[in-house]
Design goal:
There is one protein chain. Helix 7 runs antiparallel to helix 8. Helices cover 57% and strands 0% of the residues. It is flat. The chain has a domain of 68 residues. It starts with a helix and ends with a helix. By secondary structure, the protein is an all-alpha fold. The protein has 10 helices and no strands. 1% of the residues are buried.
Amino acid sequence: MSETTSKIAVETAVAGVPEAVPHGLPTMRGSLAWLRTSLFSSWFSTAITLVLAYLILRGFWGFVQWGLLNAVWWVPENQSQACRTLHGTGACWAVVTEKYRFILFATYPFDQQWRSALAIMMFVALYVVSAMRRFRRKELILIWLAALTPPSGSHSDFRWGSWWRSAGVRTCPPSRRSACSTSS
């Protein structure tokens, strides 16, 4: 296209060709435009947006009251009477700090808890790496599959499901399923 042809095309669009003139409200840009077109485009959309905003804010405020404002953060000498007097109106974070080992490992043997702790750290690290955009590649899917798949083989350390048992999950090979269900 020559310079004069492009100049005429630009001037024609500005000169008032009916197809080139925008109709309706002036265009907005940015977040306000997105809000108006996505959440407040009709009366029904506005009503749904306002009802959901109210419910979300009310739920958030209830969680703040329960988890922060009415919560018991510590109790003297492991006395849980302060938690019992709340009757569910606030969180009892003192129990979490006192019973964290049972919450994480349940009744798993103390000398073997390092295995569960290692599995927990591995999954936390995988979650952190997955949240970073620079690590989002096909290889990350393979790493997740490797982490979720229990090792198999004939070596005694890698029996069927040994990885899952190390994380505290009871497993039984398909060939011994009936024997395992009766021996529990």
